[in-house]
Amino acid sequence: EYLKKNKLFITSSHLKQIPGIGDYISCSLSAILKNENCAVVDGNIKRIIKRVFNLNESSKFFKKQVFYIAKELTPDLKNGIYCQSLMDFANLVCKVKKPYCEKCIVKNLCKFDGKQQKLNKKPIINKLGIGFFIRENKNFLVGISKKKLFQGLYSIPFSDFINNKENTEKELIDRIILDWMSLHNISQKYQILGYVNHIFSHFHLKLFVVDIKLKSKINLVNYKWMTHRAYNSKPKSSLMMKVKKLMICI
Ligand code: SF4
Question: Is 93 in the pocket of ligand 1 (CB under 6 A)?
């Protein structure tokens, strides 16, 4: 429906225009449905390439190497069958644990030595942010995010995400709220509704949600007033789905 309405075709570049769809999903769909010869790299394909070419996953060039090889190997024709075959091969033969190397058709080419590489685990980065539920009567402020993580998705306004240390959390929350409100000339009382935890690939976020009840509407650049009903029909990130549960509690 979205594709039809926006006159988009099933190509990786068109699919990427849909909010929330990134490189992997757009390439897989257009490869599998339309045989577009774009390089699909999921966890399974990455594992095969890593093993066959004996790549070092700790190297800073690892991602680039995998993508380069995937691109070189992608066929011009029938890419859909190629991708699905690789995924089946990864699940049935080149499995995560105990791959069937003895029976594998590429065993003579493969450089895998049977050892799983131990990755240096990166320390978890904890961040803190504030979402602002700014409401007047039955409406609240909503905008389309320009941040890379949520590009094209609808959300309530929220602060930048700041590195969080448990012992200074309270001060940090107050500072972020007051700074943000003064930047936007909002001086009403506020209450903290609660927080949601969300895990991103490179950090863990604790997002507090602040309720600000206004007597009359204000203008905030890039945001417009919307009812819950209208907001429900808009594309949102899974983080904002969690936040919505806090918003409907009041
Ligand atoms: S030889 Fe083993 S590690 Fe290499 S591709 Fe085949 S199953 Fe995977």
Answer: yes
Long-range contacts of 212-217 (CB under 8 A, 24+ apart): 212/132, 212/133, 212/134, 212/135, 212/181, 212/186, 212/188, 213/135, 213/136, 213/188, 214/134, 214/135, 214/136, 214/186, 214/188, 215/136, 216/136, 217/136, 217/139
Please check whether the domain covering 2-103 is classified as CATH 3.40.50.150.
no
Q: Where are the domains of the chain?
A: 2-103, 126-247
pLDDT at 204 > cutoff 80: yes
Q: Which atom of ligand 1 is nearest to the CA of 51?
A: 3
Q: What is the pLDDT of residue 104?
A: 95
- From atom 4 of ligand 1, which residue's Cα is the shortest distance away? 110
Residue 165 has pLDDT above 90, yes or no: no
Q: Which of 88, 97, 101 to mutate to test the pocket of ligand 1 (most atoms within 8 A of CB)?
A: 101
